Amino acid sequence: MKRKSFIILLWISLGTALFFFIFFTDEKSMKNFGLSLIVSLMYSFLIGAGNGAINDFLNKRFPWSEATTKRAVISIVTILIANIILVYFCNYMNIVVFQKEVSTEEYFSGRYNFINWFTINIALLISTFLHAKGFMEELKKTSRKEVVEQKLIAKSANAQFESLKNQLDPHFLFNSLNVLSSLIDENPNQAQKFTASMSKIYRYVLEQKDKELVTVEDEIEFAKTYCQLLKTRFEDSVDFEFNVKKEDMRRFVVPLSLQLLLENCIKHNFATSSKPLLIKVFSENDILCIENNLQVREQMKESAGIGLANIVQRYSLLTKKNVFIEKSEDYFKVKLPILSEKPNIVNTVVETEDKAYERAQKRVKEIKGFYGNLISYCIVIPFLVILNLITNPRNYWFYWPMLGWGMSVVAHGVSVFTIGKGWEEKKIREILEKNNYGK
């Protein structure tokens, strides 16, 4: 037991002992006060600490965040059985052992059923409070943990995305310089034209590489310019066909994806005037396809594999839609998803915090309302019981408000803690994934 809980139970025991000693003890003596204190300590520590231990044990074995419905059912059954046993034992020790009012047979004959039943209700209220408190603490802990995890995921994804984009600049420059080096020896005039075109294209690379997505239209225009650059070197050995639907032009793809795929087509296939390489760029069913006839060349050295892998990884950070590759004996095709909207990795953190805050705020209001109802019940009902016993001890009318209001408190607790319906905020990550956050 924690030190704070131990001190609280001591104060509760002392307060209860003083209350019963002052108002319900005829002979005011240190012996009777000591007896009241012992009885109060017994009730406080056996019922209070017992319910606390049960709650702690269930929190470890059946956390609210992992098995809400199962935990709720187990809690109800456990606290009912445990409190009935504890109350009967405490009342037995108080009435039979300490006060010696009746024998064991008389105690279990049914004469004290009302006292036992009343005490069990008080114990159940205490236990309900402890379990509700545990539920709220678990909710706050889980919400905080999920928000932190989402922050880390978003920061990691953003860092990874930046790293991938930074590959594009040296990758393009390195390959372009290799082409230029070849042209200088083969055709100096073409090398001069290539240099002029390359400066224009490289400007686009610098402008677009920091963006997460660009329009299909911008990417197609750039690809056509890049194809002209390739035609400068390969002339009739390479042909290009573009057939992208007009409605797809305003949608989005990852930047420089076409350039990387066009470059791969040239890099991995041979092209001659007698056997030209035909590269097609077209759209179908929300997919942008880049297809070439397969004329595989022998590689002198192993490819670094940056191009296609870079595209696949960037798409995986932005959407659940996958990049598909088709290969047959005659052709090689890459299918890029065309996206309808622009997701933003950085905004994931803000959206996660906002959603989590809204849910937490709503949850706090619901739980505060339940606690207010429960505390009011715990204060008013004992007062009505005492009032009834003082004014009209032969007619127990307090049963009706106790039962009616008690059923209302139970129904309120069921609605707040969603027993049987599942925890609305069981896992924040599942909600975020459902609404396409974080990807």
From TrEMBL:
The keyword NADP does not apply. Residues 358-432 form the 2TM domain. Keywords: Membrane, Transmembrane, Transmembrane helix. Residues 159-237 form the Signal transduction histidine kinase internal region domain. It comes from the Bacteria. PANTHER family: SENSOR HISTIDINE KINASE YPDA. This is 2TM domain-containing protein.
